[in-house]
């Protein structure tokens, strides 16, 4: 029997009553045991507040305005009234709950909503195009809201506006799947205070956990992982392989502070490469010749980079493969590399793609290969993977090249390489372990980064203020936040330095205002609160303790270094990290 949406709503509610990660894990795992294979995809995605896997380019695309309209259509209450209520409550989900509650007895009829119905309607929102779209979208939303109970409507609205947060990260989802389907094998439980996991045998537990994690790293869909675990157990998980066209989590780099530390981590000799200041592109080619490109956040950017598609098509030998690379912008005038900021606008661009690829050309620097001619290479040594690349990439400067690389055990040579790297516009260098496998999604010491710059923070904009005088049309002072242990965004200060007043000088107030305006969820006087979406890299003089901000920490003299278009809010710096830097600066 199809699952009712109210079941999922009960789960959301139950999860919202505890902050403890293990309790949340337990609640989800108990729930998953009861979910049928048919409902699994819907449950898993909606639990994460989405209807498409993270790598899917489709977006729900409903702004607050359209939601106001739909709420009005569903309840018969005027948009003005709803808007006033919204200003008071600051959250359209809560507004929906209240409105539906008051209206319920009077006019709305209430058929039971199935999970599938909610899921399908929300998906349809993303697929509509062309004339009459607004009306169709309003209908689809109103249809759900007229059948929804008050609490259901709250979660429907939050999901559609992409504001659902249940405070459960990927780690807890992975654990929940393990607990649900391998509870018996691992004997897992947790302490009464909810702080520690109890297992009979750590190795056995880790074996199952790793199998779930590995399956997730190559599919990026908990639904697929849970289905395999439920129907075919460990074997099912192990048989999930890489699929060309579906992005794999990128392997991340560990930061080292000295070259010596780099050597200690990756061994001697090691490979050294320039740390290019571009953005990561994972390029897939399947045996029918289709090419797909993904960012580090696994977003599909194939359409935005027709030039890169051509380079991959023309300059690579092989029927099917998955490459890891960095696309670096260069100046049309001088041919020199440009900082990431200059080309970052290409990532989100949906129009004038041809022109922008001509104006902001990129050179693809291939540095790894994880799949070739039908076989996964992640368990092969890095040295071998690089060797293969040298055979199959037909290098053509300003189009596609291999990342410049050297094998060395000599510190002096690394120092020289570092200087050359920085002088030619790179961020520093990478030191890579020669016999290491490729570990998707992991920040293990298989590759390390050694950078020239002082440590910066990646922070999320959660609020802003309308400026004064000539800045009155711009949101010009931004409230910036990091992530605490529970996944909440906590503020560490306000920043306005670093943006330009003229559009052609770099990231400007105008552009930032354009990006933030659609994200506004509450306005009070000059102050606005925005959906946490935009990540900026922020430099500062010092970190201090401070009661003025919700994190308890504050940045002194913060300045915006760049817009991190390649990062999602969930990838912002953590409060733990901010505290670590604070402690570190006391020592130095
Ligand atoms: P950062 O802010 O330092 O870029 P990050 O959190 O974005 O850090 P890290 O994994 O810590 O990402 O740093 C590695 C990143 O460096 C890769 O994601 C990739 O985009 C980039 N990079 C540049 N040159 C190379 C290279 N030669 N090999 C691997 N990664 C490279």
Summary tags:
588 residues; alpha+beta; D-amino Acid Aminotransferase, Chain A, domain 1; OB fold (Dihydrolipoamide Acetyltransferase, E2P); seven-stranded antiparallel sheet; six-stranded mixed sheet; 41% helix; binds adenosine-5'-triphosphate
Describe the structure.
- By secondary structure, the chain is an alpha+beta fold.
- Among the domains are: 254-451, D-amino Acid Aminotransferase, Chain A, domain 1; 457-584, Beta Barrel (OB fold (Dihydrolipoamide Acetyltransferase, E2P)).
- The chain contains 20 helices and 22 strands.
- Strands 14, 15, 16, 17, 18, 19 and 22 form a seven-stranded antiparallel sheet that branches.
- A hairpin with an 8-residue loop joins β14 (457-466) and β15 (475-483).
- α2 (21-34) crosses α10 (170-186), α6 (92-104) runs antiparallel to α9 (150-160) and α10 (170-186) crosses α11.
- The radius of gyration is 25 Å and the shape is globular.
- The chain starts with a helix and ends with a helix.
- The mean pLDDT is 92.
- The structure holds adenosine-5'-triphosphate (ATP).
**CA-based gyration radius:** 25 Å
N/C terminus separation: 63 Å
Q: What compounds sit in this structure?
A: adenosine-5'-triphosphate
Structural class: alpha+beta
The CATH architecture of one domain can be named as 2-Layer Sandwich
Count of DSSP strands: 22
Mean pLDDT: 92
Strand content: 15-25%
Percent helix, as a range, is 40-55%
The CATH fourth-level homologous superfamily of one domain:
DNA ligase/mRNA capping enzyme
Q: Number of DSSP helices?
A: 20
The level-1 CATH class of one domain: Alpha Beta
Low-confidence regions: none
Shape: globular
As for the CATH topology of one domain, it is D-amino Acid Aminotransferase, Chain A, domain 1
């Amino acid at each position: 029997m199809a699952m009712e949406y109210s079941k999922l709503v009960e789960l959301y509610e139950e999860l919202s009553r505890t902050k403890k990660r293990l309790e949340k894990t337990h609640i989800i795992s108990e729930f998953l045991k009861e979910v049928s294979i048919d409902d699994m995809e819907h449950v898993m995605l909606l639990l994460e507040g989405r209807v498409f896997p993270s790598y899917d380019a489709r977006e729900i695309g409903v702004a607050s305005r359209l939601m106001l309209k739909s709420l009005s259509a569903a309840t018969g209450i005027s948009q003005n009234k709803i808007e006033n209520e919204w200003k008071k409550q600051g959250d359209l989900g809560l507004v929906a709950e209240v409105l539906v509650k008051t209206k319920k007895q009077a006019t709305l009829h209430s058929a039971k909503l199935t999970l599938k119905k909610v899921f399908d309607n929300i998906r349809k929102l993303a697929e509509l195009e062309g004339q009459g779209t607004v009306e169709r979208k309003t209908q689809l939303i109103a249809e759900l809201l007229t059948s929804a109970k008050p609490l259901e409507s709250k979660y429907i609205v939050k999901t559609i506006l992409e504001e659902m947060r249940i405070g459960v990260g990927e780690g807890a989802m992975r654990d929940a799947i393990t607990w649900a389907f391998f509870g018996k094998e691992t004997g897992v439980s947790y302490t009464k205070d909810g702080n520690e996991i109890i297992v009979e045998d750590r190795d056995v537990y880790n074996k199952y956990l790793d199998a779930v994690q590995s399956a997730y790293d190559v599919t990026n869909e908990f639904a697929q992982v849970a289905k395999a675990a439920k129907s075919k157990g460990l074997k099912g998980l192990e048989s999930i392989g890489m699929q060309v066209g579906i992005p794999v989590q990128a392997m991340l780099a560990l930061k080292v502070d000295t070259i010596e530390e780099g050597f200690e981590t990756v061994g001697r000799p090691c490979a050294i490469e320039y740390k290019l200041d571009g953005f990561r592109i994972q390029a897939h080619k399947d045996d029918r010749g289709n090419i797909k490109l993904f960012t580090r956040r696994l977003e599909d950017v194939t359409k935005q980079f027709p030039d890169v598609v051509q380079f991959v098509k023309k300059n690579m030998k092989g029927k099917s493969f998955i490459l890891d690379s960095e696309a670096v912008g260069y100046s049309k005038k001088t041919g020199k590399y440009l900082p990431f900021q200059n080309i970052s606008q290409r990532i989100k661009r949906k129009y004038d793609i041809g022109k922008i690829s001509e104006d902001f050309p990129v050179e693809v620097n291939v540095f790894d290969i994880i799949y070739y001619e039908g076989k996964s290479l992640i368990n092969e040594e890095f040295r071998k993977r690089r060797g293969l690349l040298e055979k199959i990439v037909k290098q053509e400067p300003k189009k596609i090249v291999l990342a410049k690389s050297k094998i060395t055990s000599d510190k002096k040579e690394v120092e020289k390489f570092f200087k050359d790297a920085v002088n030619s516009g790179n961020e520093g260098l990478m030191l890579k372990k020669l016999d290491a496998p490729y570990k998707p999604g992991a920040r293990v010491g298989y590759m390390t980064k050694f950078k020239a710059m002082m440590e910066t923070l990646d922070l999320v904009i959660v609020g802003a203020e309308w400026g004064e005088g000539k800045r009155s049309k711009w949101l010009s002072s931004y409230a910036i936040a990091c992530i605490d242990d529970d996944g909440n965004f906590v503020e560490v200060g306000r920043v306005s330095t670093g943006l330009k007043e003229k559009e052609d000088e770099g990231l400007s107030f105008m552009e930032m205002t354009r990006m933030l305006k659609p994200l506004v969820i509450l306005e009070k006087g000059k102050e606005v609160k925005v959906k946490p979406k935009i990540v900026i890299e922020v430099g500062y003089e010092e970190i201090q303790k401070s009661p003025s901000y919700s994190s308890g920490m504050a940045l002194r003299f913060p300045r915006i270094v760049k817009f991190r278009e390649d990062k999602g809010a969930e990838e912002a710096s953590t409060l733990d990290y901010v505290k670590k830097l604070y402690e570190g600066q006391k020592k130095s």
